[in-house]
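@channel sequence for tomorrow's demo:
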Amino acid sequence: MKQAFSHDPEHFKRYGKSFQEKIFQSFLTDNTWTLQMVEIMEPGFFEIGYLKFLTEKYFSYQDKYKTFPTLPVLINIIKESLRENRDAVLKDQIIDFLHRVRSNPDVGDLAYVKDQTLDFCKRQAFKEALEKAVQDIDEGKFDVVVDRMKNACALGMPNTAGHDFFEDIESRFTKVNRSACPTGLPEIDKKDILNGGLGKGEIGVITANTGVGKSHFLVSLGSEALKRGKNVVHYTFELSENAVGLRYDSNLCQIPSNEVVERKEEVIEKYENGEFGRLIIKSYPTGSASITTLRSHIEKLLLKAFVPHMIIIDYADIMRSTRKYDSMRHELKLIYEEIRNLAMEMNIPVWTASQANRDSANANVVGLENMSEAYGKAMVADVVLSVSRKAAEKATGDGRLFIAKNRAGKDGILFPIKIDTSMSRIKILDDEHMTVNEAIQSSNNSMKSLLKEKWKEINNS
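structure tokens (generated this afternoon):
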């Protein structure tokens, strides 16, 4: 009976050496995914000695330091470990593999490898359970065999049954560091409103009418993240990469956009003396990029050791849906759901923008009902900020910022703002915010005063 399992059955050979090597390379490129695999993957699942060895070291480092080692750190760990190992063949195999990884970091088929790894783990777990079951059956340990099979079947399932309300009461009162990314507007980053900014895994939306300043607002959010040492990926579907780059130059260096080119040396000096995160700006033609396109681009960045801390999409309404519907609003809702999934998977904040409908052009306040085409977009978002500016206010830069939706704190409040489009900067003029009704009343009173003055002028003439 033992002889029947002395070699691998054909169906266990589906994932060979190349695939298993790509699994380990995927560990190096996507730490968020790898953290999920730590609970599932056993180093012994690898059939290749050097991959078992490397995985043991990689996982042990994470278990000790609660973070994964970079490739250079891992190489140093391996060097120290190999000094005590007399297996010359293993040493040569590890050196050869790591050399190939460094010279060609592109995994290729990364999405497929990650998608199939759970199936690989299940197969290896069953294989291991079957091999051990042979000896257990010979020894009459039938209950052990059943347990082994159950454990193999449960691989990949959640480790907990959920939050036991009364038993797990302490966990609800443990102070959690939200680790939010501030907007740079202290008045709305306050604890009772955004509680520090947009949190990891959350999606924020800026909604406004055409030409009001959505793109400038997004640049200001990205600039704030850069000032705090965060890495930002900015996707643009209307402007060129250079045009967006100049807006960042203008904001970070506080130089009007039409003067940036002439003040090149000043800009370079600012970056040399300052400490900023990294910024990648990537443009795609309008309507050509889907969430799959963005994922592919991010995976390439991860291969180059660029780990984003914030993603900005300018803007989601003009992305391409991965599925076609008869109704545009269903496609838009799907796009926002896919963006939210991306934010949650990568555990980083994502800011995007949404076009407001025509009715908002002369509105004092732009609300959720003004989000063009799909109210469902607002349902997906964690934070919705709207910006309203009437035509007469564009020259002065005056406007209103309305917190239309906010899962982290207060919403339904309005702030007077100043928008400097020459430097993509947003400033709240007064933290004494108003409610919507107060804003409308204030606007009506201002209009009445203006009409009275005009009436006096006519009578006097």
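heads up for whoever presents: The radius of gyration is 28 Å.
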